[in-house]
């Protein structure tokens, strides 16, 4: 992790940083608090959007979904990517391939630390690596599918980070 026990920094990102990455940021913080409280001193979670405007709040629907899942997004404010944020990140997790491509076009030096959410620390068949569709404006079933995939991926990623000795 580097000198002075720098926290391992994960930046989770999507398009506008108001639905998927907002939810995942809050959920990851909640997950650490509930399941891995010792790891909170070792890991930092941030979020951003490849086409985000600074200061936007999480969507009303995703705020409700977060509340149903035991946490809140009242203090979430969207952030666009910056050179400083990319430099701070140990890993950047994106929802869709086009977002990964767009980020790397602007920040090519981030190539070795930029992954799709389903790609990061994945040891299975590469055909299982996929985009995480945006449920914004969709029906309840689309949000439920997003939440199921998001929760499973975060559980898997934190388990793998533990195996690697990062947390």
Automatic annotation (TrEMBL):
<dbReference type="InterPro" id="IPR023485">
    <property type="entry name" value="Ptyr_pPase"/>
</dbReference>
<dbReference type="InterPro" id="IPR050438">
    <property type="entry name" value="LMW_PTPase"/>
</dbReference>
<dbReference type="InterPro" id="IPR036196">
    <property type="entry name" value="Ptyr_pPase_sf"/>
</dbReference>
<protein>
    <recommendedName>
        <fullName>protein-tyrosine-phosphatase</fullName>
        <ecNumber>3.1.3.48</ecNumber>
    </recommendedName>
</protein>
<feature type="domain" description="Phosphotyrosine protein phosphatase I">
    <location>
        <begin position="8"/>
        <end position="160"/>
    </location>
</feature>
<dbReference type="Pfam" id="PF01451">
    <property type="entry name" value="LMWPc"/>
</dbReference>
<dbReference type="GO" id="GO:0004725">
    <property type="term" value="F:protein tyrosine phosphatase activity"/>
</dbReference>
